[in-house]
Amino acid sequence: xxxxxxxxxxxxxxxxxxxxxxxxxxxxxxxxxxxxxxxxxxxxxxxxxxxxxxxxxxxxxxxxxxxxxxxxxxxxxxxxxxxxxxxxxxxxxxxxxxxxxxxxxxxxxxxxxxxxxxxxxxxxxxxxxxxxxxxxxxxxxxxxxxxxxxxxxxxxxxxxxxxxxxxxxxxxxxxxxxxxxxxxxxxxxxxxxxxxxxxxxxxxxxxxxxxxxxxxxxxxxxxxxxxxxxxxxxxxxxxxxxxxxxxxxxxxxxxxxxxxxxxxxxxxxxxxxxxxxxxxxxxxxxxxxxxxxxxxxxxxxxxxxxxxxxxxxxxxxxxxxxxxxxxx
Length: 328
Hints:
Oligomer: single chain
Distance between the termini: 45 Å
CATH topology: Rossmann fold
Low-confidence stretches: none
Number of helices: 13
Radius of gyration: 21 Å
Number of strands: 7
CATH class: Alpha Beta
Strand order of the largest sheet: 3-2-1-4-5-6-7
CATH superfamily: NAD(P)-binding Rossmann-like Domain
Shape: globular
Strand content: 5-15%
Number of domains: 1
C-alpha cells in the first residue's frame, strides 16, 4: 500500500516540476522577462544559468540571494551579448557546469530605442542590431554545436508584436525584430533535421523596466541628433527627450483606455510561463510562434498567413519536409 500511495504523490511532484532535469541558459536577466523567467524556470525544476552584463552588480546579487532563499538551482554568469568572446565563454562554462548539456537557450536580452528612423545615428542603430539581432546570433551559434551533437534542444527567441507590425516613431526596433523573426524561422527549418526546435515569443507591451531603459537610450540619442535630422519630427523628438515615467498604479487601469488598461494589467510572468509551457512540450510538437499578451494581438493573422504562404511556396519542394515539420 505504501508503494501504491507514493505513486500519486510522485505524479503530483512531477506535475509541479515539469522542467526537472532541464538546463536553461537565459540572457538579459538583470530585469524584466529575463529576471522573472530565470526564477520561474528554476521553481519548475530547471537548472538555470542566468546571464547579464557587468557582473558583479546589485541585480546579480539580488537575483542570486532570492534563488538561494528558495533553494533554487540558479547560477549567475557574465554575458554581454554584444561580445563574441563573452558569448562563447558563457555558453562553454554553462555546458561544463551542466555536464555538457544545455537543453534550452532563451535569447531574451534586448534594447528598445524609439524615435524617427532619420534621427537614429549609427551609434543607436548599431546598438539596436548588435543586441537584438547579432547578440542572438552570437549566443545561439555558440550553443548549437553541442545541441546538434546530441540531436536535441530548444532555442527560444523573444521577439515582439513589432516583429510583425510597424508603428511610426518606433525607431529601428521593428527592423531588428523583423530580422529576428526571419532568422529564427530560417533556423527552425534548418535545425528540424537535427531534432532542435525553435520558438519565437511575441510579447505585447508589459510594465517592466524596459521603459526606464528605453528613456535612458533615447535621452542620450536626443542629445546627439543634429537639428537638420530632428526638425521634421517635433512630437517624436519631444518623446525622446521625456524623462523616465513611473509606472502607473494598477488602480489606474480602471480609468485608462482599453489598450492602456491591458498594458497595466499585463503580468510580465506571462512570458516566462509561455516559454516554460513550450519547453515542457515534446520535441517536434512545439509551436514556431506564440503571441503573449492579455490585450490585442495584431500579429496573429500575419502569423497565420505567413505559415500558409511558407507551406504553399516550399511545402512540396526539396525543403518541404523541414517546412512541414515546423508548421504542421
